[in-house]
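STRUCTURE:
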């Protein structure tokens, strides 16, 4: 028989395809969806990165010029540093603080207090960044903002939180952690609920104190949960956009402008599509290299 694929005759291959026709029809819409909305735009963007792309008229090839322009642009490296600093802050603080809150709520003597607190800290996660950004921009106003009113009441001086680069960067990290803290804490609480109480009893019998129980029982029991939370935080490392886009202003732009907002302004606002797509693929390459070494 004629072998189209090693190990399969043409007739056998056709029969196997026909027998699995129902499954192939079911998978076809998903394949079509990803082809149209994922793979085609990805290939199109790759082609654009090697062109002087124009919305109207022909787009002449540019070779590696867009990539060279990105790599020689000091603004690109500045926003990459900003992204790493803000992303690292969100990654570390957004991992440790929810864990501490989950442990505190788990150890609370009042179940009602724990449930109410859990609900309250989860609420910000339900709000959009437009709402959250508007609230915090109002609270952090130098004149009349609640935070500065409290500082002045305690004898301090008003702080222009969103007009000083370093302070604004720390404030953005804090706001980002505050928004998602309840969601991550709930994941940790769910992980703590899955730890067998008999393990704590056995640890106490062996003479382990609070720290010993945490180190030898709680941490190993939360290892898989920690991986999930860490993965969620890592996925958003280079994807920070809404918070910066809403709360940025010219006074702090140099210190808080991140990759996603930079690409948005270059591609959408300035119509430099070739430059923006080239920068996107450079970031993707950096991400893949970093992922390969983790």
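SEQUENCE:
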């Amino acid at each position: 028989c004629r072998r189209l694929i090693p190990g399969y005759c043409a007739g056998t291959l056709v029969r196997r395809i026909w027998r699995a026709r129902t499954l192939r029809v079911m998978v076809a819409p998903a394949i079509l969806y990803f082809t149209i909305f994922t793979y085609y735009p990805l290939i199109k963007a790759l082609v654009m990165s090697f062109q002087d792309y124009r919305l109207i008229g022909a787009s002449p090839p540019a070779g590696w010029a867009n990539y060279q322009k990105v790599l020689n642009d000091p603004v690109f490296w500045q926003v990459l540093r900003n992204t790493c600093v803000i992303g690292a802050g969100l990654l570390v603080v957004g991992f440790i603080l929810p864990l501490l809150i989950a442990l505190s709520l788990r150890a609370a003597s009042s179940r009602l207090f724990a449930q109410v607190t859990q609900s309250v800290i989860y609420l910000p996660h339900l709000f959009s960044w437009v709402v959250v950004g508007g609230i915090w921009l109002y609270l952090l106003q130098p004149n009349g903002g609640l935070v500065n009113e409290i500082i002045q009441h305690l004898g301090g001086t008003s702080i222009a939180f969103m007009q000083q680069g370093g302070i604004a960067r720390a404030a953005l990290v804090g706001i980002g952690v505050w928004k998602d803290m309840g969601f991550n804490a709930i994941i940790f609480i769910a992980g703590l609920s899955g730890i067998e109480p008999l393990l704590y009893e056995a640890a106490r019998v062996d003479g382990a104190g609070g720290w010993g129980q945490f180190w030898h029982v709680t941490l190993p029991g939360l290892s898989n949960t920690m991986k999930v939370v860490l993965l969620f935080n890592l996925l958003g490392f280079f994807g920070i956009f809404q918070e910066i886009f809403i709360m940025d202003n010219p006074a702090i732009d140099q210190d808080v402008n991140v990759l996603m907002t930079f690409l948005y302004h270059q591609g959408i606002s300035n119509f430099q599509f070739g430059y923006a797509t080239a920068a996107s693929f450079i970031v993707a390459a950096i991400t893949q290299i970093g992922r390969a070494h983790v």
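REMARK: Residues 74-107 form the longest helix (34 residues).
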